[in-house]
User: Fold this.
Amino acid sequence: MTVPSRRQFLALTGSAFAGLYLNSCTTMGPRASSSPALSGSASPVGALQPDPAGVLDLPPGFSYRVISRHDTPMSDGGSVPDRADGMGCFDLGNGKLALVRNHELQPQHDGGSIPPGPAYDTVARSLRPLPGGTTTLVLDAATLEVEREYRSLAGTIRNCAGGITPWGSWLTCEENTDRADGRINKDHGWVFEVPADAPGLVDPVPLTAMGRFNHEAACIDPATGIVYLTEDRENSLLYRFLPLRPGQLAQGGTLQALVLEGVSDTRNWSERTMAVGDAMRGTWITLDNVEAPEDDLRQRGAAQGAALFARGEGIWMGEGEIFFTCTSGGAAHEGQIFRLRPEVHQADILELFYESPEESEYSYGDNITVAPYGHLVVCEDSYDDVVQNHLRGITPEGAAYPLALLKMQTELAGACFSPDGRTLFVNAYSPTMTIAITGPWPA
Assistant:
């Protein structure tokens, strides 16, 4: 995507955002849902073909290339860290792309060779290094050759997913709520912003007004500047952040949680409260004490009526609607996908877009993206006895099909398309492997 500047973004969102503040809790009559989700495995791209190299099975006519591997040298003198997770792709102009890639590393993990920099505070560096953060890959858009690869954020913990911003930065989210304890000298559980064109390490400035919780992913509605946030807990909430100034998240704002009319629990575990295709009206409650030293935002929000979700994970903005995954939701506990239609002058609408009936069709969907051809692409994150993680496509009608199968015994993560829609980038989690997939995508 070619992104506007912050100044252009502020001009575009100002009037819409003001209207949303005035109408954030209005109601409306029921809206008809889209076509019910359809079960099935018929693929619009064809059956997967075995990969002779034993890395990634793909449909006929598709191919891949590995553009980055764990522990190989980077241009800043460090080495590629392990546990590659969420990722975003950006158009830098002048024929260059940037991939900003998360690394879900905790203090006990080996972060590889890390060059020193201002992002490390003295205590954390001397007592227990915090290897989580991001790396950035700068690519030639035509050849996909990596020209530079370097650490762009460090000193954080378990950077799981995140999201792209309309002004050209990556929001990286800590799926961790460790407290300062003398070995770790700061609280964690925050969102951080990394400009796609940052030439090296940026200061890890937490966006504390966006809440302290087990963050997973984020997306921004470009029409309003509102940030939508998922939480990876079995009793998670869906959050939104209304910034004081759209495009300037560090200036603060208001954190809210979604309340559904007539449904307090969307998980469909003990009883079915939502069927595929059901659409519910949603309003938002404002949360207080969002820095949550007790990591209790979800409990306090639920006590105020916020709806529960089963491990909210990947979230992505489509054309006027948002899709997000709930990894263990549904009667089969294999995963759900929800669609949220944000509105300015009336209630938002939440629809259960897809629910997996069984492991073989779709299992533990995690990171998600909206493909240029209108389908969803979801990364599976299942760790059963036999690990068989797919990239799953989901049609606009709600039918799941296999798009790729990772032959490595790890999860897929970070799926995102190049701005021209020709290349799908994705990560193998551990050992880190970043892959570029090309082929005859559906029309």
DSSP finds three helices and 25 strands in the chain. The CA atoms of residues 85 and 272 lie 32 Å apart. Residues 15-41, 119-124 have pLDDT under 50 and may be disordered.
